[in-house]
Amino acid sequence: MVKLKAGVLVGSLRRESFNKKISQALIALAPETLSLEPVEIGGLPLFNEDLDNDSPPLAWVEFRKKMQLVDCALFVTPEYNRSVPGVLKNAIDVGSRPYGKSIWDGKPAAVISVSPGRIGGFGANHHLRQSLVFLNVPTMQQPEAYIGEVAKLFDAPGGALDEATKRHLKTFIDGFAVWAGRNTNRRL
To answer: Domain 4-183 adopts which CATH fold?
Structure first.
């Protein structure tokens, strides 16, 4: 059985981030055909094209190498001011350069947005998709995942997710495994 590797990028840096908790739940629920590996983005220096020369920042080089080794990407994002957090946009920008060497080109992805608000990060989800379209990242359309009022979905602070949310996440991650397998550039 071929196993796809997915890089998981979480757009929240907070220690007790609900986005991190949801990404951990997705890792636990992933089918055997999909390996989810967190990719740290919090330490990436802000993108500045002047630094992308013969010796770019080591963090950029390591991030690009890591993402080149995965078959697909899973973005887990909160919504900041109706858009994606700067740390996530920075990771996308770092990976898209140098021009003509984007690590994103053709790499299948999925987006899940997580928010304490009722609309589940709808704005961030769709803003992120706009950037991914430009970067030629085929992005899973269905099933969609907007996790709203996330604080109410855990049985206690740091506790387990409720069963309905687990089922929703399982449907999402199983769908992503199948979809990514059909859309990866790697021969399966």
So the answer is: Rossmann fold (3.40.50)
